[in-house]
Inverse folding.
């Protein structure tokens, strides 16, 4: 059997996402109070090394994968794609075959999802998608973890509202809705719909995924309100985006239409005054810092899953 890859959340399978979430939470609780650089008592990835390869900038993904490996007892090497021979024409496939010689797993943040697929196709070690223009699966594991620990119940059956651009992060939330069975309403302007394939797949799994152009309709009674930047890395039409998405700002007024005590999520980096007001993101319903911190716990469970240590 080939290596196990995480290119999208559906690679985990329905039971797989729940196992990853529960393991992340249990492992987080088990190391409570330890300094960040101290390994978990079982150090399950002792002797293993991860290479993280970035074609685009990153703060959270970079830090959390590095710290995740340390906490699992392993090592991490972080590489900028521009410093590799890739930039001089070495193919993705040859690069992948070389990585397989040196490391036990690879995390890639890439401009094109198809490049991560090409890398994974010939890789002898697990490949994890650390964000492409299509999806951001690792982020959503942290998001759900944050919702479950804050609400004190499983996300299954909760109602989520996505407001804004139907982008890579939105696509992965759609996948999660299909895998866990939470309800999802997405408010986006014309021309900013999420990927139809993700919507169809989630609906085929029985998930309730509604698309609307009305932010008010999307958030009505929602337990969770999520947004993201209006201009993602690689988007070249910033001016049009800022204009078209303006009516989709998450404001205190919009949050008031959600369920009482609804949580506000944002994968970050945020742009106060664009997709969200400072009042909301810095206010009492925002859980964005816990969400960022949970990236490390999500990454750890995903790495263990990919390396076949979580069955
Ligand atoms: N949310 C997220 O992936 O952040 P970075 O771009 O900083 O990694
Ligand atoms: N949608 C954003 C997410 C950043 C973490 C982007 O792709 O730039």
């Amino acid at each position: 059997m080939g290596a196990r890859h995480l290119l999208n959340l559906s690679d985990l399978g329905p039971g797989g996402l729940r196992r990853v979430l529960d393991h992340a939470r249990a492992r987080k609780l088990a190391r409570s109070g330890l300094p960040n650089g101290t390994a978990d008592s079982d150090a399950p990835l002792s002797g293993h090394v991860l290479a993280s390869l970035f074609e685009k900038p990153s703060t959270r993904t970079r830090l959390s994968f590095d710290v995740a490996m340390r906490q699992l007892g392993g090592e991490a090497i972080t590489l900028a794609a521009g410093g590799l021979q890739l930039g001089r024409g070495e193919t993705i496939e040859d690069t992948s075959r070389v990585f397989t010689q040196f490391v036990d797993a690879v995390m890639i943040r890439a401009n094109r999802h198809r490049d991560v697929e090409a890398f994974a196709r010939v890789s002898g070690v697990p490949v994890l998608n650390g964000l492409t223009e299509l999806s951001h699966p690792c982020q959503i594991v942290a998001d759900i973890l944050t919702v479950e620990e804050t609400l004190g119940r499983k996300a299954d059956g909760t109602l989520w509202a996505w407001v804004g651009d139907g982008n890579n992060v939105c696509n992965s939330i759609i996948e999660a809705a299909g895998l866990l069975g939470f309800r999802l309403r997405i408010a986006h302007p014309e021309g900013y719909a999420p990927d139809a394939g993700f919507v169809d797949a989630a609906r085929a799994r029985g998930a309730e995924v509604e698309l609307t152009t009305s932010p008010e309709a999307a958030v009505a009674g929602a337990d969770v309100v999520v947004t993201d930047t209006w201009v993602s890395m690689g988007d070249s039409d910033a001016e049009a985006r800022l204009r078209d998405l303006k009516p989709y700002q998450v404001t205190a007024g919009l949050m008031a239409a959600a369920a009482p005590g609804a949580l506000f999520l944002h994968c970050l980096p945020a742009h106060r005054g664009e997709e969200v007001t400072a009042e909301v993101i810095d206010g009492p319903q925002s859980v964005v810092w816990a969400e960022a911190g949970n990236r490390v716990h999500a990454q750890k469970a995903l790495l263990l899953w990919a390396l076949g240590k979580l069955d």
Notes: The chain is about 40% helix and 15% strand.
